[in-house]
Amino acid sequence: MAIRVDGAAGRLRFGAIDMPCTIGRGGLCAAADKREGDGCTPVGRWPVRGILLRPGKAAPDGIRLPWRWVREGDGWSDDPADPAYNRPVQLPRAFSAESLLRDDDAYDVIVVLGHNDAPPVPGQGSAIFFHLSEGRPTAGCVAVDRADMLKLLPLLAPGDVMEIA
């Protein structure tokens, strides 16, 4: 099934569920034009790969997708020079990488999307996630409020995709 994101309208739909969502501060862009750090949310159809949960902040009850707890030292490479670009990595690291244990709540739930990962092309965008809203545009991800995310999580299943338009 498809999670449909209407970036211009700021709406996300999954079956009969319709909720507000936030996209990147740079708006929407064609996936081929996506560049690391541009704040743009790439238009396209991205497989839902799995879920990362912060211990004590979200429960895995009813989740049908592959999931795991985020641990100390978990990061995601955002350095185009890194051989592990746009992949999960362990911190500290010689290359730039984003920590998955943030000071805010945005990454309490991370749905990993299959953008630029088969294989990753250095510089064409990393860490395009579906995560919790911070009340402002994202760095290129799609985000929703916690209550909406928790309603949606148990409905997602292997084979689902996110369609961003």
TrEMBL record:
Q: Which residues form the L,D-TPase catalytic domain?
A: 1-165
One GO MF term on file is: transferase activity
Instruction: Tell me which residues this entry annotates as catalytic.
Output: H131 (proton donor/acceptor), C141 (nucleophile)
Pathway(s):
Cell wall biogenesis; peptidoglycan biosynthesis
Keywords of the record, alphabetical order, are: Cell shape, Cell wall biogenesis/degradation, Peptidoglycan synthesis
Keyword Metal-binding in the entry? The reply is: no
* Matching InterPro entries: LD_TPept_cat_dom
- Record's protein name: L,D-peptidoglycan transpeptidase YkuD (ErfK/YbiS/YcfS/YnhG family)
Q: What is the lineage of its organism?
A: Bacteria, Pseudomonadati, Pseudomonadota, Alphaproteobacteria, Sphingomonadales
